[in-house]
Amino acid sequence: MATIKPSWQRTVFTCALLLIWCFIVTGSVITWIDPPWLRELSHPGRLAEAGTHSASGVQRMRDRNFEGAIVAFERALSVHDEPQTRVHLAIAHAHAGRPELGLRMLQEELQKDPPRFLRGVILFNIAELLFKQPVRRGEAIDYYRESLECGAEPDKVHRRLGQILYEQGKLREAAVELQKSVQAQLDPAQGYRNMLQRGLEGQNVVPADEIEAQAAAGITAEDMARYDLKVITAYQWYNNTDLADTFNMLGTVHALLGEFAEARAAFTDAQRIWPDNPQLARNIQMLDQAERQARTSRQAPQPPQP
């Protein structure tokens, strides 16, 4: 025979259920209303969750999984809307085969007056998207130049400018830009500056304002004295195909300007890094031929002057 609980026990049990139900309903209502105090209380958690999604997106971009990166960045933005993540999302769309969408999103972000370092990222990526369209490469020049003022990596920017100016037939200006790219690539401190710039572009445990302060402080000779610059220089030359390509392009420009000694020096440096480059071998052969033709023309008897 079932035991009937005393009335006071039933009352306590009913009140407990009612209290739990009230807590659940109250919590649901507060969550739905999302008052300012709750948003402030949950802000650190939202930042952490958004940061996790955004970092996942950055890693997927490095792995060239651009569609996966888009999903991760959109999740991050659904938790916490942040300009740097919006820029990453635009870049991911551009690399995923939607360059016009990415370009439009980047231009929209540029109108929102972003911080200096983020402005540089936006300008450089707009320039890169324009560079990939041969008919619009001329438009990229101003974006590249302005990105330099915002901390963009000078080795990459000057190399792109040199290539565009070379294609436009502005050989002397192209030579200047390519030489600046070489100098930046061989600067032992430039790698550290680039690291700080990339640190501002990605997810880091170090606050962005601290990285910006380090970048603004610059690097002195005393800072570099603690390092073995011979090792750094040797590493910069080792298997550096970007540097080899820059030397190769610089040599081509000098050759077209008739500066054969400078051209040979640049080709020699390129060959030192990448001896098996077939394009470089052809360029050296063409330089040899051009020098022989120049010597022949100088040795040929000149027609009498009238």
Describe this structure in words.
By secondary structure, the chain is mainly α. It folds into 3 domains: 48-112, Alpha Horseshoe (Serine Threonine Protein Phosphatase 5, Tetratricopeptide repeat); 115-203 and 226-238, Serine Threonine Protein Phosphatase 5, Tetratricopeptide repeat (Alpha Horseshoe); 239-295. It has helices at residues 7-33, 36-62, 66-79, 83-95, 99-110, 116-131, 137-149, 154-167, 171-186, 190-201, 208-217, 221-225, 229-237, 241-256, 260-273, 278-299. Helix 7 packs antiparallel against helix 8, helix 9 (171-186) runs antiparallel to helix 14 (241-256) and helix 14 runs antiparallel to helix 15 (260-273). The longest helix has 27 residues, at 7-33. The N and C termini lie far apart (139 Å).
Provide the descriptors you would attach to this structure in a database record.
mainly alpha, Serine Threonine Protein Phosphatase 5, Tetratricopeptide repeat
